[in-house]
Here is the input.
Amino acid sequence: MVKSLQTIFLLLILSFGTLSYSLPLSTSKKWIIDSASGHRVKLTCVNWAAHLEPMVAEGLDRKPLRDIVAKVAEHHFNCVRLTWATFMFTRYAQRTVTESLDSLGLREAKDGIAKSNPVILNMTLIQAYETVVDELGAQGLMVVLDNHVSNPNWCCPYNDGNGFFGDADFHPREWLHGLITVGKRFKTKNQVVAMSIRNELRGSRQNEHDWYRYIGRGARMVHKANPDVLVIVSGLTWGTDLSFLRQKSLGLDLNNKLVYETHWYSFSGDQQIWEVQPLNRVCAKSTQSLINNSGFLTSGRNPVPLFLSEFGFDQRGQNRADNRFSSCFMAYAAEKDLDWGLWALQGSYYLREGHTRAEETFGILDINWDHLRNPKFLKRLRFMQRMIQDPNSNLSTSYILYHPESGNCVGANGKNKIYTSNSRRWSRWSHDGDGAPIRLMGSALCLKVAGDGLPPVLSSDCLSQQSAWKSVSNSKLHLAAKDQHGEYLCLDKISAKSSKILTRKCICIDDDSDCLENPQSQWFKFISTNVK
Ligand SMILES: *[C@@H]1O[C@H](CO)[C@@H](O)[C@H](O)[C@H]1NC(C)=O
Ligand SMILES: *[C@@H]1O[C@H](CO)[C@@H](O)[C@H](O)[C@H]1NC(C)=O
Ligand SMILES: *[C@@H]1O[C@H](CO)[C@@H](O)[C@H](O)[C@H]1NC(C)=O
Here is the structure.
């Protein structure tokens, strides 16, 4: 009885969750909003690939569609960026799933689908894709349809014929035809909230002139085919460079439906910098480069939303560059409260780059789609899944003190002890900039250095040097105050196992090229919030 009541209660919460916004979506300055109420909707998506050679959403050979979709919702994503290949709609519109798998000799995948999702085998590829979209909608998830490639395949080598308008497989007219077909076909499905019109433009042909010409045309045509969807546009150089918009805007009026997107990985731009240079410098440079290339779009006179539609990390946790990049990434994305899409859901591919049953180490699910590859990572991501800034809130702004390496935030308990926590039990702080105290809101208390290796204390002494906090490194992610001897000590979350924070000797804050220690335990970020 108790159990079933709990279940009903849970269901109520879940269904309330799915109904807490209505569709379609629009934009208002840098936010995506629900058109009807004007409330902000934050897209927290996971990418799900359906654009590789078989043109079938991955994993349907492993688990029933319904179970896969349930996992997405269970882990607090509210949306899926579902990829598609142009040719599926223009050249292979009549092809069935069985025919597609047979033509590639994918017997094992076919047997798996026959077992887990028999109904899709006889469907056309498009019907199967639509079935996935329907199930996502049925479970309350929003969908972004992403035109990932023209010729179905793994994306995105520099010169693979799919990189830019005019490449061997990338015919502008066929691309437009595909966009219009998809726009019209999914018009009646209100879970389809957005279409991104092309993924990761790149290659030797890329140029701004053609970008304005074709992207403008594509965006207008999608808007005409389906005036309700958000139209998502990406830049040059693997979709990361929109810097040219500073000089010349796209000049489109899509009735508040235009959103830009970018991607950010440890391997974006300079390779390997995350391993061989001081981390504070690398993080500062990499963040500034993102701001220069696309982040600037969310500020200034005509701000627009920026959807960080791909970022991701090796989920096995063994890639040093990824582990370092991830904290830097989260500090920025959380501070700006960006909409985002994690790469990726899939733990495996039917066929990738010639390998059957290829593993996706960036996938949150394991190769058999049974378990989370890294449950801790999803816990860590939890903070970023929350809405942190609400444009309609009338609450005053305060700060959350966020520790990206753990995904935890700093709180003070009833006994005024400082801890970090992954749940919502964080405290609100105020801080008026470098040299000012960090005050616990609603109290007369401030954070104060007690000494090297000791936890900071909450004290009514807000004026001494031990209470004057300042960001002291290039990355601006170190928070330090002086001890009684005048030495700076930095906040430090010493271990993943303990909720404690201490103040300790600051790591590599002087931008010394020889200082390659990992300072991430000392990275904290003030995140401004006006949400309860
Ligand atoms: C698919 O079609 C084939 C041939 O028409 C038929 O034998 C088979 O039973 C169908 N399978 C399903 C799952 O509908
Ligand atoms: C960002 O742009 C500014 C102004 O143009 C420039 O000075 C700076 O070097 C750029 N930084 C990076 C990392 O690209
Ligand atoms: C803030 O908004 C809520 C509901 O939107 C309203 O009930 C409340 O009176 C508002 N408070 C202030 C201080 O405006």
